[in-house]
Amino acid sequence: MVTTKSLIVAYGLALLPVLVSSSPIVPRYFQRNLFSRDNITASTVKTELGQQLSKGSLIFGPDSALYPNATERWNTRITPNAQVVVQPAAESDLAQIVKYCNDNSFEFLVRNRGHGTTDSLSTFSGIEIDVEMLTGVTIQPDKKIATLQAGTFIGDVINKLWDQGFVATTGSAACVGLMGAALGGGHGRYEGLYGLVQDNIVHYNAVLANGTEIGVNETSHPDLLYALKGAGHNFAIVTSVVEKIYPRENWYQKTYTWTQDKLETVFEALNTFHKSANGTTPARMGVSYGSIIMNTSISTTEAVLEWGFDYAGPAADAEKLLGPFNAIKAIQVGSKRTLYNLFNKKIAEYPELAPSAYLWHEGYATAGMQAIPSDSTAYPHREENHLM
Ligand SMILES: Cc1cc2nc3c(=O)[nH]c(=O)nc-3n(C[C@H](O)[C@H](O)[C@H](O)COP(=O)(O)OP(=O)(O)OC[C@H]3O[C@@H](n4cnc5c(N)ncnc54)[C@H](O)[C@@H]3O)c2cc1C
Ligand SMILES: *[C@@H]1O[C@H](CO)[C@@H](O)[C@H](O)[C@H]1NC(C)=O
Ligand SMILES: *[C@@H]1O[C@H](CO)[C@@H](O)[C@H](O)[C@H]1NC(C)=O
Ligand SMILES: *[C@@H]1O[C@H](CO)[C@@H](O)[C@H](O)[C@H]1NC(C)=O
Ligand SMILES: *[C@@H]1O[C@H](CO)[C@@H](O)[C@H](O)[C@H]1NC(C)=O
Ligand SMILES: *[C@@H]1O[C@H](CO)[C@@H](O)[C@H](O)[C@H]1NC(C)=O
Ligand SMILES: *[C@@H]1O[C@H](CO)[C@@H](O)[C@H](O)[C@H]1NC(C)=O
Description:
Radius of gyration: 25 Å
Helix content: 25-40%
Strand order of the largest sheet: 5-6-10-8-9
Oligomer: single chain
Number of helices: 13
Mean pLDDT: 86
Number of strands: 15
Order of helices and strands: HHHEHEHEEEEHEHHEEHEEEHEEHHEH
Structural class: alpha+beta
Strand content: 15-25%
Bound molecules: flavin-adenine dinucleotide, 2-acetamido-2-deoxy-beta-D-glucopyranose
């Protein structure tokens, strides 16, 4: 009997005799276009890969009750096609899965919390590696670093560290994957004090495209360290990281609701607050954030401004800095109205959108981030002061 694989080899030899005969060491993952297998099914993958994975790992397809959660996306317009889902129970499984996919010319894509919004995700079809079981958050004995596994997410890491008396740069939105954020930089409330998430990672455990496991740090693969810090999703699957942690401290939070007539004044105060000295937002003023939102107990036609400030320190220190916002009274008209007016107009046009908010401004402190030389990592936005 002629097996699929021997046919493949025969075709490869026939089409590319020079390449194949003179370069027997061309890695399999560069040969993927030489052949393709029939459509992947969960039962095939279970039979072929299942035994190699650690106990507790799961392999399933679209007919499984587990499939909807394992493939859910924050943005439903992003539609990777997960023909089969593999959930590894141990970090070491990731290398096995990658080798298996390479050997069989199956595309693979890591998924953690499904918040990625790059269009290219929608072109994927193959084996999804869902890392949600890898949830370890382990504070090391020196209490200066913690090991965080690939399946951790921001809210989970914040809570687990906080409960033990620590904080770390994690990113802000609780629902987002820690690694997804960290591999692209990672913005959050400790940016002013400690920098980006990536700036606090001292070691990455990673699996390369050929399934080889490596450790990446200043003395081991430093070129890859540069790339993982800012362009990381393209260079490896990270199975865990070692990140610096810091003693926790209390936060002071203050929120304001302003009616629309204060709009220009609020933005002038924000400009002074964040930008007058070019990005020297007080390092402890971790974030200011604002949205426009319809609050029907105030008005059904004019959205209000909801603003918040989070300060890492005592209320009295924060209040000194918040003086200009406490004092806002003036009524002014200017050119910053366009977006605000558009929001009201759209709510009037589509009343079903009334419960929505337009997140307008996220101003993190930047001192810690900008203390790191821009050319030391692949992250390209260090000079930028704001996310608008
Ligand atoms: C509502 C919302 C809030 C956000 N808030 C913040 C924030 O506060 N701070 C911030 O910095 N960013 C924030 N982001 C951006 C967010 O960091 C990125 O979208 C991130 O890539 C999402 O990661 P995920 O695990 O949730 O998504 P996924 O779609 O599961 O993963 C995103 C990408 O990362 C890859 N990937 C995931 N894990 C690994 C791994 N271990 N190794 C290699 N590649 C991997 C995936 O293959 C995919 O391409 C936010 C995004 C949204 C939608
Ligand atoms: C493989 O899947 C594609 C789309 O997912 C489908 O169009 C095609 O018919 C399938 N082929 C086989 C042999 O099942
Ligand atoms: C899917 O996720 C939801 C929300 O976290 C949970 O309540 C539900 O039990 C999950 N479903 C399955 C089949 O695991
Ligand atoms: C995998 O790739 C790395 C980086 O190119 C290389 O050093 C290593 O030898 C490769 N491993 C195998 C088994 O081919
Ligand atoms: C750097 O990585 C190598 C390879 O994993 C490891 O042996 C070494 O201990 C790491 N160094 C630090 C400082 O983490
Ligand atoms: C801020 O930076 C810009 C551009 O680099 C410069 O022109 C301006 O003078 C700076 N302003 C202050 C207050 O430092
Ligand atoms: C709307 O405004 C009222 C009065 O200020 C306030 O109590 C309430 O919390 C606001 N609702 C929302 C959803 O912000």
